[in-house]
Amino acid sequence: MDGEYTIPNFFIILVEPKYGGNVGAVARAMMNFDFDKLYLVNPCNLDDDCYARAMHAGEILDNAKFFSSFDEVRKSTDYLVATSSIQYLKDKKHLRTPIFLNDLSNKVFEVDGDVGLVF
Asked: Quick one: which H or E segment has residue 65?
């Protein structure tokens, strides 16, 4: 990439996580990589196990934004990135465009706004 660029805002988005401990572990990993914006779609209860696994990332959990549907999150972000090992050719509900990592890293710097990493 040539020239100046701005680093977009990154949000980690967990869709319907089932276990609080997993949410806490994600918050801890986020803190280790200097991410601090967590979006939760229909999450499980953020229980004691969640906060225990978050270790020192409780503030990320406290500041998480809650959504009742994925569509709400979709409207709140400018560019979404998700991973999947399966591509359904008949699935017309969401646009899926396979992209190589190098191309993705260039693409996110073209985004003027918020980038959501969906899990």
From this structure: strand 65-67
